[in-house]
Structure formats: structure tokens, C-alpha cells
# Entry
Amino acid sequence: MASYSSEVKNELTRVTGDDFCCQAAELAALFRMGGAMSIGGQMQLGINFVTENAALARKVLNLIKGKFELKTEVMVSRSRRLKKNNRYMIKVVPAPEVVDLLAALGIMRADGWNDGDDTAICEEECCKRAYLRGAFLGGGSVNRPEGEYHLEMVTENRLFATTIVTMMEGFGFPVGQTERKKDCMIYLKDGDAIMRFLRLIGVEEAMQSFEQVRLVKSVRNKVNRLVNCETANLNKTVMAASRQVAHIKRIDQYIGLENIAPNLREAARLRLAHPEAPLQELVDLMEGRVSKSGMNHRLRKLEKLAEELPGGDIN
Ligand SMILES: [Zn+2]
# Structure
């Protein structure tokens, strides 16, 4: 079974903003995550982008080719990691025009390199969403909703991480951030926030299963709460019954059950015979001769009686 992450990502590789502003923002974040500069002859710049996701490789290629006439190559190799996935490398061959691409993405500026503060190319909301989509596609993952709610994005670039966090906070997300070896991990732990984030960056289809599971989970929690509540009530019933038994025994000791009013005596004997029965059960045992409130009244009278006995205030 494909992971939920790859399900979400495969959908996202088909989502692209119509405007160049958004495409540039997404590509910039993708390059920050999985790209590296290369230097060719005559110190010309090139870009290598690496991913294990074939659909993402295609998307990056399309984003580059959509606007720029650059020479590209695609290389496929086996990943060195254990899972032995394919590894795709998009190579933007070093050429003078690569500078135009880097300038359009805000990575190269008139005053020099921009190491990861991309706020300037992400002024519009559409671009922010595209940028976060790129960041997630390039370095993110999300747990299947059946498990623990967790979405994360990982990068070594601190400045880039700050850009992502600031942007997410701007959208009101409860973002967490932690260091993991040399990486910086940005995460969301809240089911609602994860749902809202995925939707913000353009996930729709994979959302449905997330929502369904979330619904089932919340119903299950509600049922658990109800069950716990019932257990609590049951405990209360048992406590009340055992207190009543103690009271009745004291009455018997000091006054004698044969000396109290017959309706109280009847209730007292019934309670002694069924020390853990809930009130309704005692009522049922009376076979219609007393109502629930009538029985409750008798038991309360017995308790009151016991409390008036010497040292009677037991609980
Ligand atoms: Zn835009």
C-alpha cells in the first residue's frame, strides 16, 4: 500500500498555480528543499534537483520548461538508501540563462545570493500557498490519519525554515519547530490544522479519506467518553448503595429494624438483600408497589434516620 504521504504528494504534483508568480514561488521552495547548484565550464551556473518521486520530477521539469528555454537532462538511478527506490535527477545544464531563472525565483538578487528568505516573492496569498505546497512536496510528509496526527517538513536550511514557519503562522497554524541532528523539523500535531494545511496547499481527493477517518475517530472518542461517564455513574451508584447499607446496619443496631415504620423496614430489608443494586432494580423488585421517587424517598429517610443516631455522620 502506498503511504498516505505519497498519495497526498501524487495529487499535489498535479496541482499548479495558473500564474507565473505562483509557479515561481512553488519552484523556489522545491529548489530550497531538493535542489543544489552546479557549476559548469566558464563558471556558468546550473541546477540539480533530486527526488524519488517520478511525478514530482516531471512537475519540476514542467515548471522549469514552462517559462524558460533551458537545456535539461533527466537521470534515473537506484537510491543508495535501503528501500532502493528510483532516484530522479533533473539537471538544468549550466548556461548563462540559468541566472534568469534564479533571479525570477528570487534566489539570486542584484545584491547577491538569497539564502532562504523568500518573503519577497510570496506577497500574494496565492503565492504563499504555492510556496508551502513546494516545501511540502520537496521535504514534507504526513501520517495516515488512522495513526497519530503528524505532518512535518524537514530542511537543513534555518533561514528557509524560518520563512516557512512565519508564513504558516501568518495563516494561523499552530506550528511547532524542533532540531533533529543537523535538520530543522517543522511540524503540525493537530488534526484540524493538518486538514486545513493540506487543503490550503491544494489537496482535495486525499482529503476525503482524511476527513472520514477523522470523523470515525471523533465518534469513537465520544463513545469512549460516554462509556467512561457511565462507568463513573455506576461507581456513584455503588458508593451510594454501600453507604445506605452501612446506615441501615446502624439503625438495626441502635433501634432494630422491627421498630421502624413498615414501609421503611421493607426498603431497608430490600437494600440489605441487594447491597449493590441500582435504585431502579430495587424498584423493579417491589413489583409496582412503589415508584422510583417513592423508593428514593424511603432510602433517604433511612439515611436521615441513621445520621441522627449517635456518631451517625458516617459517609
Ligand atoms: Zn501567485
Notes: Residues 17, 19, 21-22, 124, 126-127, 130 surround zinc ion (CB under 6 Å). The chain has two domains: 4-203, 226-307.
